Amino acid sequence: MPTITLGPWTIHTVETGAIHLDGGAMFGSVPKPIWSKAHPADERNRIALAMRCLLIEGEGRRILVDDGAGDKLEPKWAEIYGIDTTEHSLERSLAALGLGVDDITDVVLTHLHFDHAGGSTRMQGGVAVPRLPRAHYYVQRRNWENALRPNPRERASYMSENFAPLMDAGVLRLWDGPQKPWTGIEMFTAEGHTRGQQLVRVSGREGTLYFVADLIPTASHVRIPFVMGYDIAAIESMEEKRALLTRAAGEGAWICLEHDPRVALARPHAEGDDFGWAEQVAADAATLPARR
Q: CA gyration radius for the chain?
């Protein structure tokens, strides 16, 4: 799990398990012979994806960004989505850092789709309760409202047991637009994937890191036309991606890739009218490459 220090924050990537989703849906109009080179599909056309989160430690806080799918899915749906926690889970990854779920003080949810927020709750006596008992959770109000009344395309991804118990327990805070809740940490929205998705930027004298959730889910999605079929507004996603990559490349920033099974962090650079990666850091790397 790569670690980076930015200002007062020590940042770790945190693996919570694997998910397998339809490759065509992950790459939209991109032909299979192109995307399957980097992401070979199984007999059901699914590709292996990570559910990678971010842990930000410092100033008396341990802030988790997203928390994976959790373990509440019915066996039928867990099998359809290929949820696999045999190698990684949130608890085991935190334990590798000497921590447990009780140590998390804050959880920033980029959005409430089940593979990003399902780990927010667990079942206790047949009732869903907060999984991280000391944490306060944060999501954009627009995404909360979208999750309560989802459009037909997203209905299967918004499962109320993942987020309604947080509001019932009084631990969910709704944010309205961009935020700067802690030193050097800011939230900003990107709405092409789902309304009210929020992304995270952490900066310090050492540099900058972005957690981009489903705007750039894998390393392959650095290409502007590579947009998911899951996105509700593909053209909007492309515009948001171009703006973010332009900014990040200008800053020499790292980008944390939530769903890439092999690459945890990458540094973008412009390639003509498009973008590629100047550097990549493997999911199992312990350190970052030395700055040139």
A: 18
